[in-house]
Amino acid sequence: MSKLKITLDVARWEFTRFYKIKNELIAVALMVGVAAIAFVAMFFSMQMDPKKPEIVLVNEDVLNIDSTIYDNFTVHHAGYTDIDEWKIKVETGDVAGLIIIETVDKGEIYTSSKRPWMRQLERLLTGYRHQSVVSLSAIPPETIEYLLQPFTLDAVYHDEQTMKERGTERAFAIGFIVLMIVAILIGFGYQFTAITGEKQQRITELIVSAISPQTWIDGKILGITAISLVTIIFYGTIALAISLPFAQYFGPGIFEWIAHMSVWKFLAFLLLSMLGLLLWNSFFTAVAATINDPSTSMRGVFMMLPVLSVVFAPGAIRHPDSTFIAFLGIFPGTSSTMLPARMVLTNVQVWEFFLAVLLLIGAIWLFRKTAAKIFSFGMLTYGKEPGLSEMWRWVKES
Amino acid sequence: MDKSILTVNSVQKQFASVRAVNNLSFNVKEREIFALLGPNGAGKTTMVRMLLNIIKPDVGSIEYAINGTEDPVVQSNMVGYLPEERGLYQDVPVIRTLIYMGVIRGLERTDAHKRALYWLERFELKDRAHEKVEALSKGNQQKVQFIASIIHSPRFAILDEPFSGLDPINQEVFLHIIRELCDRGTTVLLSAHQMQLVESIADRILLINNGKEVLTGTLDELRLAVGMDETITVVFTEENPDITLLTRHPSIKEIQKKNGNEYKLFLKDGKSLSDLLQTLGASYAIKDIHTRRISLHDIFLQAVHSTTKGNHYE
């Protein structure tokens, strides 16, 4: 009875216990259904003619107001003598607002509160002001239009190929990091449910009489990691299937774009992501092993740790060659996100990549060992969660 | 049946200030049903967990001799375990649970499936094989857990409280199957509180209290060790009779008051019953009287009370 076979049997059990393709398909069908309903609702709401806000303009002749205002508003025209009468109508809600144009630059609005249509009105009045100012000046409209044009800077790259590769690599690096973070969060949820559920259902004793805690923990890490991977592959494939025709139609051609990606870098990103996922799953397993009841435990905050590595991303983009960012590119907790970013932004030495991979493997080994030790001591203790000092003592004793 | 399959030598285990197991030694012989008894907190579960290598003893040794090899750790496919803490994956179908339990004990998947169906049929649960565990009653879940512990036909099975939560009919079913397992070559170590059931099935018994051995041997050996063989239950006509005469009688070791007029008299081993019956007939008005050999239940109570008072049996 080989340990590897039992580990894979446990991994298979954990995978099939939680991953139900039928449920995933139902979830997708529901999502499609909700999206379809939202689309139909949006379509019909756009078809419907919304009620335009009713406004009153006083002294409008100061500005060159044209008919475009009627596209968005129902407009009443009034003189200064009617102001008090219209103010009452504003207060009773019969009209939305009373606008008194004082000069070409300034006016006053009398209304109940700040409303979304006021911004639209402000934009329109600004446009009418431009027209009025131009008509009052001697500058021809063409000159004004020319003056307002932006400066055009056409870029010519000395190595067009490298430019395209960098763009593709950057997209792939970001894609891997995002997918890895999503996979980590999925894994976190399942791992906590699996381990704390078994403790609560008093299954642990039965299982550890048959297999060692290490075999069980290893099987769990592999099984839950497989769930994370399959889930993101499933949804990634659906997203790709939906977006591919659009990308092909509107973009430069998806296959031409992918062709710019270096195979080695693709494999390096994939390896780092996989190791990062395994590292965090091992870490979560160790944390979950110390929890009896996830609904009352405060240790769920540990799930924020992998997300923290994303916090350093802006720093990596701005200063990819700084010593601190280079260190984060090697440090096991952050290397799976920071190293791909550095590999895209700057030249990373080969030894840095291999050192990061080695440290990741070492950290995974350490976490899975620690998880099994904590688990083997903590699995039969129900009630109070062990403290950090107690867990450290368990690890030392074992 | 004389060859020992398990030998425990002077094992000790301490948790903080509590010594759960204190210098305990015993052996379990091949193909016997060995009962480990003791009051709550006596150290039974700790001992069982040490036998399964779930926790390690502080002092002493545990050695298995299964398949001719001596090993401190038993191979998991050789041992079956029904823990006192019952637990199964509630949201998983019965058949899948049993296949998994068989597979992690070294069975091939198809073999585990075949065996699971066989045992489910034996326990009249075959129709419910594809239902989730949570849909079963407590008693039926107990059956599934029992199957999970013996599906791989272990050479040595540890059954902690196998009868708890079962009705009398199913208790009989379990007794029959445990005996059958033993006949097929499985050595059984069981721990239970249903003394009548243990008495009817166990070949040898180890009684522990406060982590120490109190008594060990066959039922007859235990009777001999406590120095009592028979009990007489007497129902007097009058309430609260004066039993001073009986307390001084040389044949009586102990008297227990059951009800107002019902008393249980424990006879010293080998003492004459006729003397006592003469005294009873001459001195008291008796409504009912019957004799019975001292039961395991009585031995258990006697032994535990004696050790609590500080007395020890040789």
Number of strands of chain B: 14
Q: Please state the average pLDDT score of chain A.
A: 83
Helix/strand/pairing category of chain A: mainly alpha
Radius of gyration over C-alpha positions of chain B, nearest whole angstrom: 23 Å
Helix content of chain A: 55-70%
Low-confidence stretches of chain B: none
Q: In percent, how much strand structure appears in the residues of chain B?
A: 25-35%
* Major sheet characteristics of chain A: 4 strands, mixed
Helix content of chain B: 25-40%
Beta strands of chain A, count: 4
Report strand order across the widest sheet of chain A.
Answer: 2-1-3-4
Beta content of chain A comes to 5-15%
Give the mean pLDDT of chain B: 87
Helical element count of chain B? 10
List the helices and strands and how they pair.
The complex is a heterodimer of chains A (398) and B (314).
Chain A: H1 3-18, H2 21-47, E1 54-58, H3 69-72, E2 74-78, H4 83-92, E3 97-101, E4 107-111, H5 117-136, H6 141-147, H7 160-200, H8 204-208, H9 213-250, H10 254-258, H11 263-288, H12 304-311, H13 313-318, H14 323-328, H15 332-345, H16 350-378, H17 388-397
Parallel strand pairs in A: 1-2, 1-3
Antiparallel strand pairs in A: 3-4
Chain B: E1 4-15, E2 18-29, E3 33-37, H1 44-51, E4 59-66, E5 69-71, E6 79-82, H2 94-104, H3 109-122, H4 138-150, E7 156-160, H5 168-183, E8 187-191, H6 195-201, E9 204-209, E10 212-217, H7 219-226, E11 228-236, H8 244-247, E12 252-257, E13 262-268, H9 273-283, E14 286-293, H10 296-309
Parallel strand pairs in B: 3-8, 3-9, 6-7, 7-8
Antiparallel strand pairs in B: 1-2, 1-4, 4-5, 9-10, 11-13, 11-14, 12-13
Helix pairs in contact in B: 2-3, 2-4, 7-10
Structural description of this entry:
- The complex is a heterodimer of chains A (398) and B (314).
- With 398 residues, chain A is mostly helical.
- The two termini of chain A are 25 Å apart.
- Chain A is elongated.
- The model of chain A has no long low-confidence stretch (mean pLDDT 83).
- Helices cover 68% and strands 5% of the residues of chain A.
- Chain A contains 17 helices and 4 strands.
- The longest helix of chain A is centred in the middle third of the chain and has 41 residues, at 160-200.
- A 6-stranded mixed sheet of chain B has the order 6-7-8-3-9-10, sandwiched between helices. Chain B has a 4-stranded antiparallel sheet with strand order 2-1-4-5, with helices on one face. In chain B, strands 12-13-11-14 form a 4-stranded antiparallel sheet.
- Chain B is α/β, with parallel strands linked by helices and 314 residues long.
- Chain B is built from 10 helices and 14 strands.
- The A-B interface holds A 1, 6, 9-10, 13, 17, 198, 201-211, 380 and B 49, 52, 54-55, 75-77, 79, 81, 83, 85-92, 100-101, 103-106, 145, 148-149.
